[in-house]
What does this fold into?
Amino acid sequence: MTSLPVRVPLVSQPMGVLESLQTARRNVLEIIPDIATKQPIVSGKTATVRWHMVMDPTALRRVLLEQVEHYPKSDVTKNILEPAIGDSLFVAEGAHWRWQRRAASPVFSHRNVHNLGPVMSLAAERSVDRLAGQTGRAVDMFEDMVATTFDVISDVTFSGDDSVDRDAIHHAIDRYVASTAKMSVMDILGVPTWVPRPGRFFSGNALKQTKRIADKAIDARRTKGPRAVPDLLDLLLEGEDPKTKRQMNTAELRDNLLTFIVAGHETTALTLAWALYLCAFDPDVQDRAREEAQQVLNGDIATADHVPQLPFTRMIIDETLRLYPPAAFLSRTARIHDDLCGRKIQPGDTVTLPVYALHRNSVIWENPDAFDPERFADPKSIDRYAYLPFGNGPRICIGAQFAIQEAVIILATLLSRYRFTRIPGKDPKPVMILTLRPEGGVWLQVDPA
It folds into this structure.
C-alpha cells in the first residue's frame, strides 16, 4: 500500500510538440509541469500558441471575477462541447450568457434544491439495495455511482415521464464523451474551430437522437403542465429573466437541460467514487464518517434535512474535490493586454487554470498530496480562489449546492451500511478526458458495516 493516494505523474522534463500532443491525447493532466505545483505561474509556447498556467489565487480572481468578460472560455472548450449542449450556460458568453443565468438561477435556489432531496434519498436507497447482493465481493463503485447519480438526474429532470428513453440518453452521452472529448491535435495546434475534427463525426447520430428525445419531453411537459412538486424541467419552463422577461425556447431549454444532465450526472458520480476510494485508503477516516452517519441517520436513509448534521461527511467531499476535481483543467483565451503574476499577457494567449495543480500547490496547501479532510474544518480559512472545484466568480457552477447535497446524502447512506476496502493492485488511475476519471474503475470490497 502507498502512503499517499493515487496521483497523476506530472512532467519533470520539457516535452517537444509531438510528445505533448501524444500525452494530451492520453491524459491532458500529464502535460502539466511538476513546477506548477510549486510556482504561481508557468508560461510557454506550443506551435503558434502562447500559454500561461495560473496557480496564484490573486491572479485567478482577476481572470474569473475582475476581468471575466476579457477571459472567455477557449475555442477548444467550445469546440468539444457545443455539438452536445449548444450555446447553453456552460459555453455562452456575454449578454446571451447573462440572461440565461438570470433565468436559471432561481431553479437552483436553496428551497428548490432541498425539495429535490427525496429523489437523492431514493437513489441512495437503490444503491444500498444493489450492494446488498454483492457483499463480500469486489464491486466497481464508479459504475455503481454512475447508475446512482443518473437515477437522480433523470428523476429530477423527467420525473414521472415513462415515455422518455432514459437509457438512450445515458448511452448517447457516454458515447459522445468517449468519442469526442479527447483533445484533438488540431485543437492544440490552434487550427480554426470550423475545420472538422475527424474523431467528432461518429457521435452525430447519437446526439441527434438525444436532442429529439429531450425536445419531445419538453413539448409534452408544456402540454401536461408542472408536477405538484416541480422538477428541474418544470422549473426551467417557468424560468424567466427578471430584467427582460425573456423565457427559454425549446432549443435553449433542451441545450441547458442536457448541460445539467451531463454536468450533474457524471461529476457527482466521480466525486462519490473518488470519495469511496479515499475512505478505503484511510480506514480511520472511514470509521469516523461511519460513526457520524450512524448516529445521525439511526438506520434511516439520509435526507436533505440530515445534511447540516453531517459535517465530517461534507469535509470528506470537500477534500475529495480538492484532490480529484472533476473539472481539473480549465482554459480561457485572453482578449486584452494584461499582467498576471508579473507576466505580460497578450490578446490571443491561452490562459489555463490547471485546477489539479492549484489544489496540490505546495505554496498554498500543507502536505498537498495527502488526504486530510480536516483541512475543511474551517472553510472560511481557505482563500476562495485557491479552491475551485466549481470555478468561481459570476460563472461559478450553478448546480454546486445540488451536487454537494446529493454527494453528502449518498456517501453518508453508504458508509452507514457498508465498509469499503481497497483491493491490492486495483487502485484507480486518474485520467482526464473531459473530466477526471478513475481509469479501470474504483474496485473496492464491500462488506456490511
In short: The chain has a mean pLDDT of 88. The longest helix spans residues 250-281. The chain has one domain: 17-448.
